[in-house]
Design a protein that fits this description.
heterodimer, A: mainly beta, four-stranded antiparallel beta sheet, B: alpha/beta, nine-stranded mixed beta sheet, two-stranded antiparallel sheet, 17 strands, 29% helix, globular
């Protein structure tokens, strides 16, 4: 069983920070988890950036503002990714080189639009769904950074779609019943894992990147959701409530050998892989507080 | 509005930050001698000393929470599985594991109905028991208690929200006194995710903290300054209001009730570092301090579709994603903690707890994969003060569209609240409210 440490993540001088990072990596490698935020605010959808040196996540900064925060793992406090926030921002995604990033943003209609930003040229474009109340959520960049897959709730129902970096060339990859959500490109760009309720409750599926040949990977009571490919493409982390509450699971890429790696009676959610493939960052609720934790998956390797 | 004072209070993170206490100089807060329930015309054996309403404004989806329909066609049932509860044969949505584990502590009604599908109208009906008449809405259930009890040191009706209750089109008119006027409006209080309390109806002056509120000179200085402002606004009832404000602000019980830093860190953490969580904790403190009617509003606490507005559970788009990410887990945590806390402190015996919204959401999933307004059938949760826990009252049809058993109207909701508080049929008749209401007998 994984025991979550609840001690503070010490910040300080660069030397101390370096030691902390090393110790944190050692703890995580030992099959335990370390807490890397301590403010307790509601958090969502963390992702690693900058080669694994930072985590970007969405947080309820205040009661009526959700913003993207960036947290350097080597020390220092979190700060807004975008200093000026005029609307809720969440569901961040980054290209491997960090030049492009994308997120969902609330809009007046009310809609949730996709914002695609080019950090190098300081430009951003929006993909705005057609229906006045449609939403675009949970974006994922293809490994080459050219396309963005996301969950589109629009006139065709709730489907997986892609657009290019200009927010154009919309292509629907699914046309099924139920809700199709949380797309995640495989590291080689050939496949997309996603969640779908097309056959009842939410299960994890995989399809080719053009939307063909969908295959179901999980068969469990309760929802399986938020798939995330490991950097080597051999495993998929996901969230499952099959054991009665929200836990982090890791399975082989073909759906075999699902293993619960969080094993805690409180909520564990939103797994994202570190580029080293040995750790996940997750959002866990402990004693009523929502914080980010690093969880080792090394211990469950064969 | 009157500038009374401000104070500093500790926050969840043990840091100090300015919090504001503003005392409304209106009739509900006038100091007076205590009077007995019998003298007020209340039934002395009434089980509820307080009522706490957790108002889920915006319309929470009944099918995705407390009335799942796993055998309904796919275009109705939604993507969530069901989980067993402590009540045999009664499943809930998988989004609510903590509340499922506590289903033996409260009762569930699955046949609430309203009479309009518009938020502002349905909320007003839901909180007053009737559609608007020619002269406006009837008073809120809490306002009835305000009028019935008369002037008190502590406010009789506190509404916890971040700003006026309403939506982008305007305020919800049934929030307060209605046809009785603003004198019976709630005492509005805002609570941040760190537990900082702000009372917008009153203004403040610098340097007055809880410890100094008993300093009559300081209070009077503040009142005097406020008087000048009020005079400029042609407000003339100064002497009377002066006494009322001073009575409220120098009451130790009042000061302490609004100060969440007096709670243990563990308790504050258990409610979660969200405004709605801390507001529920504040609601419990107010109940403990003797406030008879507290309404905690979901207002502006969980809002991602509409920035800086107040639609709450109005998930026309991405209903399933938002419920899985935000609304479901938060409701599960906060309401479970509230029930635990009330029970642990022995308050559940004398506190009637009600959790509901103005309506549910369309059982049939809309064209964009979400759910719209549905007032023909929805849910409410009841606990404490004589409510028999673990019951499921009423049954909806196989698609969750309409009740197949007796519907429960907003008037029945209000009548039940007031009756349990001891405001009897005769008293209601004398006050001219809820004349046709009936108690929901199945709860008791």
């Amino acid at each position: 069983m994984t025991c979550f440490r609840t001690g503070r993540w010490p910040f300080g001088t660069p030397l101390i920070a370096w030691l902390v990072l090393c110790l944190g990596a050692a703890w995580a490698s030992a099959g335990e988890a370390i807490r890397i935020t301590h403010d307790g605010q509601l958090k969502f959808a963390p992702v690693f950036t900058s080669g694994g040196r930072e985590v970007v996540y969405a947080a309820h900064e205040s009661a009526n503002l959700v913003s993207l925060q960036r947290l350097p793992l080597a020390g220092g406090d979190h700060e807004r990714l975008h200093p000026t926030v005029v609307a809720h921002q969440f569901d961040p995604a980054f290209t491997a080189d960090g030049r492009w990033h994308c997120y969902s943003m609330s809009s007046g209609s009310p809609q949730l639009v996709l914002v695609i930003e080019d950090a190098e040229n300081r430009k951003s474009v929006e993909f705005r769904p057609r229906d006045a109340r449609a939403t675009a959520r949970n974006p994922s960049f293809s490994p080459d950074g050219l396309r963005i897959a996301f969950g589109l709730s629009d006139a065709q129902g709730h489907q997986i779609a892609t657009v290019n970096r200009q927010g154009e060339d919309l292509q629907l990859l699914t046309r099924s019943a139920g809700s199709n959500c949380w797309p995640a490109f495989s590291p080689d760009g050939q496949q997309i894992a996603f969640g779908s309720s097309r056959e009842g409750d939410f299960e994890i599926y995989v399809m080719r990147a053009d939307g063909s040949e969908p295959r179901r990977l999980t068969q469990s009571p309760g929802r399986d959701m938020r798939p995330a490919w490991s950097p080597d493409g051999k495993r998929i982390a996901f969230v499952s409530v099959r054991d009665g509450n929200s836990e982090i699971y890791v399975m082989d890429a073909d759906g075999a050998n699902p293993r619960n790696i969080s094993q805690h009676p409180d909520r564990d959610d939103y797994p994202a892989w570190h580029p080293d493939g040995n750790r996940l960052v997750i959002v866990a609720t402990r004693d009523g507080q929502s914080d980010l934790y690093l969880v080792s998956v090394d211990a469950i390797r064969d | 509005m009157l500038d009374i004072g401000s104070y500093w209070s500790k926050t969840c993170g043990a840091t100090s930050r300015r919090s504001f206490v503003r005392a409304a100089l209106t009739a509900p807060f006038a100091a007076s001698l205590a009077n007995s329930p019998a003298a007020r015309g209340e039934s002395p054996n009434a089980p509820a000393k307080s009522i706490l309403v957790f108002w889920l404004g915006g319309g929470p989806s009944h099918l995705d929470l407390f009335d799942p329909k796993p055998k309904a066609p796919a275009e109705y049932r939604g993507p969530f599985s069901t989980i067993a509860t402590r009540t045999p044969g009664v499943p809930f949505s998988e989004l609510l594991p903590q509340l499922a584990a506590r289903s033996d502590r409260y009762s569930l009604i699955r046949t609430n109905v309203n009479f309009d599908g518009d938020h502002l109208i349905a909320e007003s009906i839901g909180l007053t028991g009737a559609p608007a008449g020619s002269s406006g809405y009837q008073p809120n259930f809490g306002s009835i208690i305000v009028k019935h009890r008369g002037p008190q040191t502590m406010p009789s009706f506190v509404s916890l929200a971040r700003g006026p209750i309403g939506d982008g089109r305007g305020p919800m008119l049934g929030y307060g006194g209605g046809v009785w006027g603003q004198a019976y409006d709630p005492f509005m209080v805002s609570c941040s995710e760190r537990g900082e309390v702000e009372i917008p109806s009153l203004k403040l002056f610098e340097g007055l903290n809880p410890g100094r509120l008993s300093d009559r000179r300081l209070v009077l200085e503040g009142l005097d300054r406020a008087r000048r402002e009020i005079d400029s606004n042609r407000f003339v009832q100064w002497d009377k209001l002066n006494d009322q404000a001073h009575a409220l602000l120098t009451s130790g019980a009042a000061r302490q009730a609004f100060d969440l830093s007096r709670e243990s860190e563990a308790t504050r953490r258990a409610y979660g570092q969200t405004s709605v969580g801390q507001s529920c904790l504040l609601g419990r403190r107010l109940v403990e301090a003797g406030v008879p009617y507290v309404q905690v509003n979901w207002s502006q606490f969980v809002e991602v579709l509409y920035p800086f507005s107040d639609y709450g559970w109005d998930t026309h788009a991405d209903n399933f994603g938002l419920l899985a990410d935000w609304h479901g887990p938060l409701l599960d945590q906060v309401f479970s903690t509230l029930l635990d806390d009330l029970e642990t402190r022995g308050l559940l015996k004398t506190t009637l707890v009600l959790c509901l919204g103005e309506f549910g959401r369309t059982p049939r999933i809309n064209a964009i994969g979400s759910r719209d307004h549905w007032h023909q059938c929805y849910f409410s949760l009841w606990a404490g003060a004589g409510v028999q826990p673990g019951r499921v009252i009423g049954e909806s049809d196989p698609r969750g569209e309409y009740p197949v058993t007796k519907p429960v109207t907003p008037a029945m909701v209000g009548t039940t609240l007031l009756e349990q508080f001891g405001i009897t049929t005769e008293t209601r008749a004398a006050l001219g409210v809820l004349r046709e209401g009936r108690v929901i007998d199945d709860l008791f």
